Amino acid sequence: MAGARALQKEKTRQAIIDAALMHLSAEHSFASMSLREVAREAGIAPTSFYRHFNDMEELGLTLVDESGLTLRELMRKARQRIEKNGSVINTSVETFMEFVERNPNIFRLLLRERSGTSVRFREAVAREINHFKDELTEYLMAESDYSQEYAFTLAEGLVTLVFNAGAEALDLNPIEREKLKERTILQLRFITFGAASTKEKA
Amino acid sequence: MAGARALQKEKTRQAIIDAALMHLSAEHSFASMSLREVAREAGIAPTSFYRHFNDMEELGLTLVDESGLTLRELMRKARQRIEKNGSVINTSVETFMEFVERNPNIFRLLLRERSGTSVRFREAVAREINHFKDELTEYLMAESDYSQEYAFTLAEGLVTLVFNAGAEALDLNPIEREKLKERTILQLRFITFGAASTKEKA
DNA sequence: CAATCCAGCGTACAACTGTACACTTAAGCT
DNA sequence: AGCTTAAGTGTACAGTTGTACGCTGGATTG
């Protein structure tokens, strides 16, 4: 039942996924990646690719999902840090920037496919980002007495600012990156404070 | 001196540019566009392309520049509207959303190449967006007594939120779009108000 | 044990790509 | 009028792409 065969299949499936992720970089996008390239890198015949995915698009969606998992982990980590540390804003920015630095290519994938040519890709990425917004909305509602809608609007603004800062950070050197981080933190303070002051609560 | 020849050359150059812009859509990106496709659409032989551009990249940069001009016009229009109308925030969002609705493909081009695989493309788009930030910074400094740095941070936040809302609007129906617009306006109020309250001035 | 299944392979093909090269032909210049 | 310049053409080629098809050999099943 262990399935020595199924095991091998899963192994090459992972090889394909890894090969695809490996080839992602600042100069090489998933969209400009050919089936044959992936197969070559994964060490299989081009036609063997079809035993695992119907399409490059199907592989791409898998990648986005895998990236989503990594992001979900990130969120959990951020929440733990906040519980211990206190500062929501600083911790969130720190955690996110750390993710971008450590997984630039995964982040690039999301960034690009968010505005890519495939509807399904765009939807998949939007779904992942919405997880962020929703979790943050919940958090904000627990902390203060904002209405659902109000909290969501604020959460959306916060996520947008952080996500965008991550995107911009990709092309910056460490010094500029640090400055960007500080500006972002300030922007988050502004919007948070503004929301708290405008005060249209539940 | 008029140059009947130079005139004709300029004409087919424009034909190439128009063909490229025409082919941009939700399903077709500039990156996935071939030299031959453009030539075909422009009604010239593939090899004639080289009489005008060395590269598809060179054509792409030209497109980004042209888009920049359209955006610059937009800014001028927005400023005029503000002078007459008053509300900075509402007018800005209205103007920008109008642009996205009217030139979705130009906006898509900028959006995609902002995180594309060509450094030069990314730089070109960043330059265009920086124009927005700088102009807004100047405006904010004139209106209030923020320091340059403080005003820039605020401007950056505002531009990020608006630009991102534009991106999101692309895939939405009119009703959702209206809701997004309202949320964005609220977010801009938050951040503006927050900046005014935190008050670290010149 | 024999029969079946199926992941992976190799070959093959038609479609498309960028671009080198030699050409035509009309405009521009002297 | 004659010579030159250069925009646009057509042919050609080597490289790459996705994928259809038939095969193989080891794992799985009965």
TrEMBL record, chains A, B:
Q: What Pfam family is a match, any one?
A: TetR_N
What residues are annotated to bind DNA? Answer: 34-53
Residue runs in coiled coils: none
Task: List keywords of the entry alphabetically.
Answer: DNA-binding, Transcription, Transcription regulation
Q: Which domain of life is it from?
A: Bacteria
Q: Which residues form the HTH tetR-type domain?
A: 10-71
InterPro entries for this protein: DesT_TetR_C, DNA-bd_HTH_TetR-type_CS, Homeodomain-like_sf, HTH_TetR, HTH_transcr_repressor_FabR
Q: What is this protein called?
A: HTH-type transcriptional repressor FabR
Organism of origin: Kangiella aquimarina
